[in-house]
Amino acid sequence: MIGLIDGCDVNFRPSVLNPAGPTALAQEADFRLGNLSVSPSRLEVCAGETRETIQPRVMQVLTLLARRRGEAVSRDDLIAICWGGRSVSEDAINRSIAGVRRLAESSGAFSIETVRRVGYRLEQTVPPVEAAPCRSGNVVLAVLAFDNLSKDADLEFFSEGVSEEIQQTVARSAELIVIGRSSSFQFRGADKAAARIASVLKATHVLDGSVRRSENRVRISASLIECTRETTLWSRSFDRELSDVFALQDEIAAAVAAALKVAVLPSVQAEVILPAQKASERSQIDPSAYTAYLQGRFYLNRRNRADMHRAVNFFKEALAIVPDSADARASLALTYASLVSNGQSPQCLPLARQETEAALRLAPNHFEALVARASVSVVSWKWSEAHGTYRQLLARHPNDARVHHYFGWFLTMLQLPELWLRAHRRAAALDPLVPVVRFNIGEALRMLGREEEAIPEYLHALTLDPDMTFTLRGLCAALASTGRLEEAKSVLRERLVVAAGAEDFYAVSGEAMIACRETGGIARLHELARDAERDYPTGSANAALVGLIHAFADDFEALKWFQRAIDEHDVLFFYAAAEPLIPVAFKTDPRWRSFMQQPALQEWARVRREVANSGI
After folding, report:
1. Rounded Cα gap, residues 175 and 135, in angstroms
2. What pLDDT was estimated at residue 590?
3. Under 8 Å CB-to-CB from 342, ≥6 apart: which residues?
């Protein structure tokens, strides 16, 4: 293995590659690429103790791109050097590039950029230092929604809430990978078979059970099952007063850790799994307050506007009984922050700030409070504060899918699609059945000019949520970009407009994306822009949308509307400004470049550079 030279991560002996023939991998020197050790002659890539065998053609492409890191390598050069100048299909090149990208995304050691109409460029990245490596010994735990055995069927919220509390307590250990609730809670009844869960979620172990509540007493039964052999490693029932439920959750989590330690994780100490506050540091709960809190969590997890407003009322009810409840205060803050960040209730921003500050005073490291602060910081355009909070979350919760999803949203605003893609790939690995995560993977691929790879991701997301409007809009854009205009129009008319209405933001932007790829579409873009300008005073259209439609038409009237979006601190400006369907002539015009250098964007630009350079 050749050592590092002059601080570079990649170095080679003088190359044996030449345009006259394919790469002679057997004669290629080993080299380092970020945290990876690459051995072309053995077709191996190593990261620590993990070793992966790479297909020969993928290794040839990786070796060439790594040698020319920072430079654009044309498809002609790839064919000449990696295929010896032979006739080769576009599909063969795309498959090899896709193989290199999969390695880039899984390792985080480098990224592959598509340089439009030129080729591909490999860029080194610095691996994240805050996110502690998972020492799970390949253990992946799925905590299922415990069955409600109470006489009152309406207490399903209670059994589900207790299950989520246990899941989060177990997941706070960096020693384990715990599948996110959005995926694991989908398995109920007959679908709880361990073999099925192992197949769909790639889980090695399942924690399942039941909850029975009677008045202010609760009985929880739990079992830890090894999926391959469907063997029960641990099983126990607990009877407690409801006021002792915090201690009970900690006891179950510690018992799970102890069972896994004996079975498969000898390096794990049972004590590592602890709640944000130890049970001894939390007063016994008030049953009525806890019930209201769990009802709030139940509705918050539904994520639509009406249910989140119901959640607000339940959290307020809990806080009226116990004003210093950090969990209820942080969940209220997160609800307000979510309503603001997804654009459903922007008027809630002052309340989101107020409740976030109150929650952090009660519990400075509370997960929901930190997520709320990060979200509020982004919508308030406090980019440095948001960056610092996300770094804190990634350091404390490296195996939590929600952290990677929220961080991916932040990267979206920073217009860093390679990192955006990596974050959501990680979120998908931890919580694979979340449609919005799959959408983000597709959207990041589209932003990178990889529309053919984006389309299957959009379709995957739509199998999980057929009416998700922003996914349908993304699919329209990807189909239009690849020349499949009739398919794009069909998706727009038959699905997107039906799901959202013709005047919806995503329907209008989807139609504009199709129009900008059509011959003679400029006239339709001007019509759409006039309609959006008319709707702007009523709130039916936002300034970022109006600016985007003008930009599609290569009309610099867009700058006036984009400036309004900046003045309004609308984060959709950054999303719109990154849209790849905006003509190159618009993006390269000096007026646009000058516009993006204005003082209001300086902090954003500085944080963007920092994140791009560090990877986190």
Report:
1. 5
2. 96
3. none
CA nearest to 370, candidates 337, 323, 346: 337
Beta bridge partners of 72: 121
Contacts of 562 (CB under 8 A, 6+ apart): 543, 544, 547, 551, 573, 576, 577, 595
Dist CA 148 CA 159 (whole Å): 5
As a whole number of angstroms, the distance between CA 234 and CA 25 comes to 50
Contacts of 371 (CB under 8 A, 6+ apart): 334, 337, 393, 402, 403, 406
**Does pTM top 0.70 for this prediction?**
yes
Average pLDDT, the chain: 84
Which DSSP letter does residue 268 get? -
d(CA 571, CA 88): 44
Contacts of 614 (CB under 8 A, 6+ apart): 126, 128
- From residue 583, give the alpha-carbon distance in Å to each of 474, 507, 517, 563, 586: 18, 21, 10, 19, 5
What are the CA-CA distances from residue 38 to residues 44, 95, 100, 107, 116 (Å)?
6, 20, 12, 12, 28
Q: What is the mean pLDDT of residues 112-128?
A: 76
| Gyration radius from the chain CA atoms | 26
Query: What's the pLDDT score for residue 5?
Result: 23
Separation CA 440–CA 431 (nearest Å):
13
Q: In what order do the strands lie in the sheet with 44-47?
A: 31-33, 36-39, 44-47, 50-53
Assigned token pair, 169? 């307590």
Residues 480, 500: Cα–Cα separation, whole Å? 20
User: Do β-strands 36-39 and 31-33 pair in parallel, antiparallel, or remain unpaired?
Assistant: antiparallel
> Closest Cα to residue 120, out of 44, 62, 60, 188?
62
At 200-242, the pLDDT tens digits run 898 999 999 999 988 888 888 989 999 988 888 888 888 888 8
Instruction: Count other C-beta atoms under 10 Å from residue 171's C-beta.
Output: 25
Using the structure block, give the residue that is written with the tokens 């350091």: 395
Q: How far is CA 458 from the centre of its chain?
A: 14
Contacts of 273 (CB under 8 A, 6+ apart): 169, 170, 172, 173, 175, 176, 253, 254, 256, 257
For 402-450, the pLDDT digits (tens) are 999 999 999 999 999 999 999 999 999 999 999 999 999 999 999 999 9
**Distance separating alpha carbons of residues 380 and 389, to the nearest angstrom:** 14
